[in-house]
Amino acid sequence: MRPILKSNKLDEVCYEIRGPALERARQMEDDGHKIIKLNIGNLAVFGFDPPDEIVQDMIRNLHGAAGYTDSKGMFAPRKAVMHYTQEKNISGVKIDDIYLGNGASELIVMAMQGLLNNGDEVLVPAPDYPLWTAAVSLAGGNPVHYVCDEQAGWTPDIADMRKKITPNTRAIVVINPNNPTGALYSRDVLLEIVELARQHGLIVYADEIYDKTLYDDAEHVSMASLADDVLFVTLNGLSKNYRSCGYRAGWMVVSGEKRHAKDYIEGLNMLASMRLCANAPGQFAIQTALGGYQSIADLVAPGGRLTRQRDLAHKLLTDIPGVSCVKPKAALYMFPRLDPKIYPIADDQQFICELLSEEKVLLVQGTGFNWIAPDHFRLVFLPNSDDLTDACGRIARFLDGYRRRHSR
Hints:
Radius of gyration: 21 Å
Organism: Massilia aerilata
Helix content: 25-40%
Strand order of the largest sheet: 2-9-8-7-6-3-4-5
Largest sheet: 8 strands, mixed
Enzyme class: transferase
Mean pLDDT: 94
Distance between the termini: 52 Å
Number of strands: 15
Family: Belongs to the class-I pyridoxal-phosphate-dependent aminotransferase family.
Structural class: alpha/beta
Cofactor: pyridoxal 5'-phosphate
Strand content: 15-25%
EC number: 2.6.1.2
């Protein structure tokens, strides 16, 4: 028989967060090893439970969750999202502008499938959340990575972004707060990006899934609140702020200059109908979550669990010789840099596999987030303080041995 091959549309698609290193970790677990997994922001496994009122409302409504819903989602949760956009100062959003999805991830793929023809380009940050790059590629487009400047707190390099715009560019992706760096962008930076989109007639895709996971009294500015003459597609959901990853409850909001986007919106409606609907139990969680007590505020407050763990991980990592790290202002991650003079890494995926084999700690290499050099990795700071201290100690021990081996 001839070999059965995957579609060539997947040739440029990768998702290293669940890539080869995770497969190796699973094999090691099957062999009886205990692995500390710092590769994914899966809050529940680290003891971050969703608000109880969300769980109880889902249970109470399960009897009504067996049928299909409207293809865009139920009215009540979409109304709650509409009110949320008003709180974020996004004007002109109506119920029909809101799409509920099986997490924001499904909606990212849908948004790209509805927009791109073969050869169209989308500006995506480097480093990025790799689903964006994968979704652009899968839709037949070309992801073009603009650099975020580590020396400027990982903010987008506007000059780099500007020079990468071509006649084929259709959109700009902005991940704010940022995964993997934990950066939070200022209003001034966001306004510069909006101006670029205005000048070149581009759509802005604003991934704001961590908009409440903010530290040190930081404030998040929603991009779609900054203009009404640019088309914005804003994505958010319950996974992170409400510790509800498995509920797969996300939303997408189309706002701003919609008059010239009628055909694109028709395409989104078609794609929403084709998948029939988002899962109904997850939809029942949205209204309660957005209207209830925002317990994320306790976790990110001074002395809150997430803040303590961020501070601890940052100190432990930056105490290691040759390791530097911009302290995250938001989200659940940090993106440390390994000084190439001290850690001459040629293949950072192999580096991560060596760390896994020697110390039983699973991270994701920087190039897995489309970073330009093999000198970073992403760490999830969700484990409790004792486990986080253990994990960072193992990383320090591995790096000490790496330095010794490569200093000879």
